Amino acid sequence: MPADSDSFDYNAALHACALGDEQALKRIYLQDSKRLLGVALRIVRQRHLAEDVLHDAFVNIWNKAVSFDATRGEGRGWIYSVVRHQALNMLRDRDREVYADEEAIDNMQQQNEELIVDQFELNANLGQLQDCLSHLDSAKRNSILCAYVDGCSHSEIAQRLNAPLGSVKAWVKRGLAALRECMG
């Protein structure tokens, strides 16, 4: 039977919990569990959630009793704040949860499968492009790579390759035509 809350020594019970006295935790539970459940219930608004909060809060009380400092406040207030914080944390965590129906899950799976297929096709196309590039002569291949990979203008390519501007333009034009034909 719970003792009168005026005569119950919360500070001593928390100190005993910090020393590993399981009976002290039981005394706190018997003393205030109904009121603590009420605190949790007012915050989370569902009995089963409030019961989960109370359970987790008592685990925290047990684990963190060593951090209780009687010079900073009363044990009873510390216990109630643990329950309150646990309930608020549960609300925050539940707000972050995303619920998906079966149709949404199916759509996500289909999109993932399409991405895998797209990635496969991209890799296959890159392999084919690399093969086609390897069949070009070095002047055409280097001109195309400078233009499309490095973003160089025709005049910059001419400087890099130490070649006439007209030749570079022709190499790019003929090289692209050869790539289009090869990629088919």
TrEMBL record:
Alphabetical list of InterPro entries matching this protein:
RNA_pol_sigma-70-like (IPR039425), RNA_pol_sigma-70_dom (IPR014284), RNA_pol_sigma70_r2 (IPR007627), RNA_pol_sigma70_r4_t2 (IPR013249), RNA_pol_sigma_r2 (IPR013325), RNA_pol_sigma_r3/r4-like (IPR013324), WH-like_DNA-bd_sf (IPR036388)
Please tell me whether the keyword Nucleotide-binding is annotated for this protein: no
User: What sequence ranges are listed for the domain RNA polymerase sigma-70 region?
Assistant: 32-96
**Pfam families recorded for this chain?**
Sigma70_r2, Sigma70_r4_2
In its UniProt record, a GO molecular function of this protein is:
sigma factor activity
- Show where the RNA polymerase sigma factor 70 region 4 type domain sits: 127-179
Q: Which UniProt keywords apply?
A: Sigma factor, Transcription, Transcription regulation
UniProt-listed GO biological process terms: DNA-templated transcription initiation
* Family label: Belongs to the sigma-70 factor family. ECF subfamily.
Q: What name is this protein filed under?
A: RNA polymerase sigma-70 factor (ECF subfamily)
